[in-house]
Amino acid sequence: MPELPEVETIVRDLRKRIISKKIKASSCGYPRIIRDAGLADLQRKIHSCVVTSVKRRGKNILIGLSGKKTLWVHLRMTGNLLFKNGHLAPNERVMSLVERKHVHFELCFDDNSRLLFADPRKFGRVAVVDEEPDKVAKNPERFLLAKLGLEPLSRMFSLRRFAMQIQKRNKAIKEVLMDQSIIAGIGNIYASEILFAASINPFKKARDLTSEEISRLHCSLRAILKKAIRYRGTSISDYRDASGEKGAFATQLQVYKRAGEKCSRCGNIIHKSRQAQRSTFYCKYCQKA
DNA sequence: AGGTCGACCTGGCAGC
DNA sequence: TGCTGCCAGGTCGACC
User: Fold this and answer.
1) CA of A151 to C1' of C1 (A)
2) Angle at which helices A211-230 and A159-167 cross, to 10°
3) Which residue among A49, A106, A209, A268 is least packed, with the fewest CB closer than 10 Å?
């Protein structure tokens, strides 16, 4: 699933391509991806709007539209937003793995270029919000979106604020990192990688972390996310950027999906176990409990 | 308030 | 080859 670095890569691509374009038409082959009010309402609201901005908040994509509106997109596990110049042939593969049948929502701009929302598993969601993106980003719950915590690459993400959040949580640190209402944007891949980089055991209770560990975690968290953005994200299978290209960070993964391989730091074997119903990868020696 | 679990979906892959 | 069961980057709502 796309996490912060993948979403950021898509947002940066789209910013170059769709800003100031006018929406001429939209279509949807699977209305359940539209939240709340539904398809007809959404189509009416976005028709003839001009794209004014493309932003990210956590894993959420916020496309600013003229008339103080926001087109909200969440890619969940396998969603993709792809920009395409011109029409799509009836059987054209949008990219490897994603066939025409997986395109569930489509925006057509006045120059005939398109923005496609494709999602094989149909978990992704789209909605229109009657407010501009900055206000939605600040207070997503007000617009019936999920509560979002600290933005890890913003200036607000100080060591002090991070530590305050960590110290009051009684659950495992990996679960805290992945809790979007505490820190926004980290998912299963980067939580594993960040904890490895900081040499912290994923099962350790957040409130038991020493101040030295919290400081190390704060540092690796930002470093890993920034590096992953430089590599344009991680493609395990489905993820592609807005041009349909893979991200290159998979080659940099130290523990995620590497169970049974040797730890790059100590040479011991990387372990896989189950945590909060998801896979966790770590080195038992470098990340002692 | 906090945790745990199933539901939402499809496709790929391992094992038989 | 074909069937079955398991696994997957995320989130939400029901329940205790």
Assistant:
1) 50
2) 120
3) A268
The reported pLDDT for the residue numbered A36 is 76
Nearest to A237 by CA among A279, A276, A189: A189
pLDDT value of residue A90:
61
Beta bridge partners of A54: A63
Q: From CA A222, how far away is CA A150, in angstroms rounded?
A: 12
Placement of tokens 């490897």 in the chain: A96
The string of DSSP codes covering A103-136 is EEEEEEETTS-EEEEE-TT---EEEEESS-HHHH
Q: Which nucleotides of B are covered by protein (CB under 7 A)?
A: 2-6, 8-12
Question: What pLDDT does A92 receive?
Answer: 62
pLDDT at A236: 83
C1’ B14 / CA A133, Å: 45
Structure tokens at A161: 């604020």
Determine the pLDDT at residue A97.
45
Q: Which residues pair with A73 in a beta bridge?
A: A61, A126
Cα-based angle A153, A159, A161 (whole degrees, multiple of 5): 85
Known catalytic membership, residue A15 = no
pLDDT at position A72 is 96
For position A108, what pLDDT does the model report? 97
Which of A56, A57, A59, A114 does the annotation list as catalytic?
Answer: A59
How far is the C-alpha of A51 from the C-alpha of A113, rounded, in Å? 13
What is the overall mean pLDDT for chain A?
92
pLDDT in tens, A178-191: 999 999 999 999 99
**What are the phi and psi torsion angles at A62 (to 5°)?**
-120, 110
A78/B15 CA-to-C1' distance in Å: 26
Dihedral over alpha carbons A221, A191, A245, A270 (to 10 degrees): 110
